[in-house]
Amino acid sequence: MRAAVLVDVGRIEVRDVPRPSPGPREILVRVQAVGLCGTDLHIFAGHANYNRDERGRPIPLAREPQILGHEIAAVVEETGATVRDLRPGDRVVIDQGRSCVSEGRSPACEYCAGGDSHQCERYGEHGITGLPGGLAEYVAIPAVNAVRIDSARDPAVAAVTEPLGCVVHASDVLLRTPARYGIQRGRGGNGRQIGHVLICGAGPAGLLWVQYLRSVLGYDGLLLVSEPSAAKRALAERFGAETIDPTVADLVDVVLARTCGRRVELLVEATGSGQIFASIAPLVRKQATVLLYGHGHAGVDLSVLNQLQFREPVLLSPVGASGGHEPDGRPSTYVRALRLIERGSVDVAPMITHRYRSLDAVPGAFTGDHAAPDYIKGVVTL
Prior knowledge:
Elements: E1 2-8, E2 11-16, E3 26-35, H1 38-45, E4 71-79, E5 91-94, E6 97-98, H2 100-103, H3 110-113, E7 124-125, E8 138-142, E9 146-148, H4 155-158, H5 161-176, E10 196-200, H6 204-216, E11 222-226, H7 230-238, E12 242-244, H8 251-258, E13 264-269, H9 274-278, E14 284-292, H10 305-310, E15 314-316, H11 332-343, E16 352-356, H12 362-367, E17 377-381
Parallel strand pairs: 10-11, 10-13, 11-12, 13-14, 14-15, 16-17
Antiparallel strand pairs: 1-2, 3-4, 3-8, 3-17, 4-5, 5-9, 6-7
Helix pairs in contact: 5-6, 5-11
């Protein structure tokens, strides 16, 4: 089969590689669509390598090339001997993580047993930790990692289930964490409710957060989004946010003005920008909640934490799309995220600005398009 293989930092080659065979508990899927994520771009650029040896050291790409792609929509091609609830032709989205639950290990580790499968002690991820990902014609995965698509949704749209699942998980963490201010009435200390939210960044993550807050959680307070891109600001406004262009206005001044000097009770950092991280302290109210959703805060001295620490914030750093499992073992968070997309509660189609119609287009997708002014999210379709 063909696959787009990351053979070195900054270099992807389309190659013939062995087609996997599914084990007894697995299915072989034919990939239809793969979303391109910031994590893929970080790995490609050499800013991160999550394929590690037993001592936690990164394994060089020259020794173990990688097939990226973890936001996957596919069609079942073949089922393993013990799989009874899926059949060839079923359309599915994929949880890329292999955990105790998906591997059928007993007893499960403490994290899987507690519903936090993304922190599994023996966790592995297709397309991230060295396991072959979706930028290939076929992938073999545990059958319970496949969630059936019950609608005629475009595979490119369905592939956005994974990033939405990460927002669902992060929101669950936010809702259950004790804090002075709650996103829903009665959830904060003494029933204090969040009335001012700032989302830093209107990339795919920030745009999903805007929709989730408005359409799923029913948040009706002030929702500000800071974003330099005009195209992204326009989409954030369409989804119900008030936007700020930080290149023409001082972000702190605008937040102080719009909150009447109160600042925000919830800040969602969705950029991964070190410069944004350095400016969080004057944006948030004392004992606010700061949700660190973006990754890659490079080039900033730890002293930026000093002023933030004085404000005694609740710092949350949820990762991935954990969230327990359905009775049949399927990941609950992915099920919830896919149903939100299928019902139209979260509209992800407008975020998809670039489509790549074959694996041959993948090298170009990683080397230039993502920096275009109108780029929000790219999806490879096969």
